[in-house]
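Budget justification aside, the reviewers requested a transparent look at the raw inputs and outputs of the sequence design task funded under Objective 1. We therefore reproduce one unedited record. The lines immediately below are the structure tokens for a 212-residue chain.
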């Protein structure tokens, strides 16, 4: 909630005129905006964070390597996009890279893995992100920055009740000064710039290559 709340506040302050101008195009896409904002920005993060409490970083790192595979299969099933051998080789090399980094270049570490609920949640998170990436292909004809702003506002609104629940029932506390700095970094760098670059890359080269 903190990351999307901060980003939404920034966009409302600096892009409200552009959002208002784009609203005629967005009005008929409200279902799309809600589904995309809820899936890519809320559900994916929820599953990712919850899996981190239940499984190891090693398992999460390896499972993340499945996202390009899910994207390739998804665009083929939905759009009948041809899968080239070069893409298959690229996915395999990418997965090998993730596997190598996650295991510290010691494949024997895999023998120590034990799969649990956290792994299933991380797999679900990968499927959700793949679906979000594929869904970007049908985005309305508005600038990516405006589309991203709408996703952020929706994500902040949907996340708010969960944040309130955490404070009331799960003992969540207000961040420390260091925590606010971390949150600011996540909001500006990982959320704003990272997501905008990702949205734009899907525009330029399609979901298959962007997913990779």
């Amino acid at each position: 909630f903190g990351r999307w709340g901060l980003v939404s506040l920034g966009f409302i302050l600096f892009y409200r005129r552009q959002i208002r101008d784009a609203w005629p195009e967005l009005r008929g896409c409200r279902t799309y905006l809600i589904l995309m904002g809820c899936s890519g920005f809320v559900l994916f993060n929820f599953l990712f964070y919850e899996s981190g409490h239940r499984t190891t970083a090693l398992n999460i790192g390896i499972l993340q390597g499945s996202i390009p595979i899910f994207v390739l299969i998804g665009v083929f099933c939905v759009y009948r996009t041809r899968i080239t051998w070069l893409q298959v080789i690229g996915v395999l090399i990418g997965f090998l890279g993730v596997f190598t980094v996650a295991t510290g270049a010691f494949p024997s570490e895999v023998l120590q893995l034990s799969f649990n609920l956290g792994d299933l949640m991380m797999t679900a998170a990968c499927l959700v992100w793949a679906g979000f990436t594929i869904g970007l292909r049908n985005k309305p004809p508005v600038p990516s920055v405006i589309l991203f702003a709408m996703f952020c506002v929706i994500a902040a609104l949907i996340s708010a009740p969960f944040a309130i629940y955490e404070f009331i029932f799960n003992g969540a506390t207000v961040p420390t000064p260091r925590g606010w700095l971390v949150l600011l970094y996540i909001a500006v760098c990982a959320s704003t710039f990272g997501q905008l670059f990702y949205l734009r890359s899907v525009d330029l080269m399609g979901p298959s290559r962007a997913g990779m």
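The mean pLDDT is 86. Residues 73 and 83 are 8 Å apart (CA to CA). Computational costs for records of this kind are itemized in the attached budget.
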